[in-house]
Design goal:
By secondary structure, the chain is α/β, with parallel strands linked by helices. The protein has a single domain (2-231), classed as Ribonuclease Z/Hydroxyacylglutathione hydrolase-like (Metallo-beta-lactamase, Chain A). It is 34% helix and 21% strand.
């Protein structure tokens, strides 16, 4: 009955109409005792598993829910008790309705529920329809919340106005693993700062700095997209953000136009470290920083 319910709920929604997920495989990587990450299509899924049941961090697209559930069962046969959304984007929350209908308790920062509950118009994605009631977070928080499960403490930390206005980092204090959500894009793309959803370059830098403060040396870092990283790689990402922002800010202070800033290629030194076909190209990243800083100057 549970499998049938998940299949029925996962077969609906805009993602199912736009993409074919039949060939997507969910790959499981154990990161630390009681901690794993699932790779498929969409944002990376973190898993806390053990004697107290399973906790998911994000859930990718709706049609993948049965595959995600099957992958979790290779770690632990218990149901998925909790789902924590790192932010509201559909490639991280697409499975919410199916999981909610199956009894999973959904948790997120206040702004995540607020954005998911209404239709949203995005300059990049067009109109995104509101999530059905079953897929909305039923527990929300303003700043921080903790889960004491599976022999560890999951510290959920809100980092405001970063990738969006509802981002959270999730840190396993015992295992020394942090899930950064889309505050951290690792290798596959330049950063995506969703200014339509309240994101900002300064917020992303502050959020990455918070992640660095959480994870101790030797720990593991789960990005929103891309392979599991080291703390040193997260530090390098932070340094890149600071460097590119400083170069764009200098151009803004000098009165350069957007086209002139793009032509100066302030992110060129990092292009070789990012996939050429990445979701966000260098010009998208630099242009977004320019727009953000110019907006700040007009305040």
């Amino acid at each position: 009955m549970l499998a049938a319910a998940l299949l029925a709920a996962a077969a609906t929604g805009p993602a199912a109409a736009q993409q074919n997920f039949d060939k997507v495989e969910i790959k499981v990587e154990r990161v630390a005792p009681g901690v794993a990450v699932l790779f498929g299509s969409g944002g990376n899924i973190g898993v806390s598993y053990g004697v107290d049941g399973n906790v998911l961090i994000d859930d990718q697209f709706a049609p993948l829910v049965p595959k995600v559930v099957a992958a979790v069962r290779t770690l632990d046969p218990d149901p998925i008790a909790f789902l924590i959304n790192t932010h509201w984007h559909f490639d991280h929350t697409g499975g919410n309705e199916a999981l909610g209908k199956a009894g999973t308790v959904i948790v997120a920062q206040d702004n995540v529920r607020r954005r998911m509950a209404v239709d949203t118009v995005s300059s990049r994605f067009g109109t995104i329809k509101a999530t059905g009631k079953a897929g909305l977070p039923v527990i929300t928080f303003t700043r921080d919340i903790s889960f004491h499960l599976n022999g560890d403490r999951l510290q959920v930390v809100h980092v405001p106005n970063a990738h969006t206005d509802g981002d959270s980092l999730i840190y396993w204090t015992g295992a020394n693993v942090v899930h950064m959500g889309d505050v951290f894009f690792h290798r596959l793309s330049f950063p995506f700062i969703d200014r339509d959803s309240g994101g900002s370059i300064d917020g992303v830098i502050a959020a990455v700095r918070r992640g660095l403060a959480l994870v101790r040396p030797g720990g593991k870092v789960i990005p929103g997209h891309g392979p599991v990283a080291t703390r040193a790689e997260l530090q390098a990402y932070h340094d890149m953000l600071v460097d590119v922002r400083a170069k764009v800010a200098a151009q803004v202070r000098a009165g350069r136009s957007r086209a002139e800033v793009l032509a100066a290629r302030p992110a060129a030194a990092y292009a070789g470290k990012v996939a050429a076909n990445g979701f966000i190209k260098a010009d998208d990243f630099v242009g977004g920083i320019y727009d953000d800083l110019r907006k700040g100057r007009r305040r």
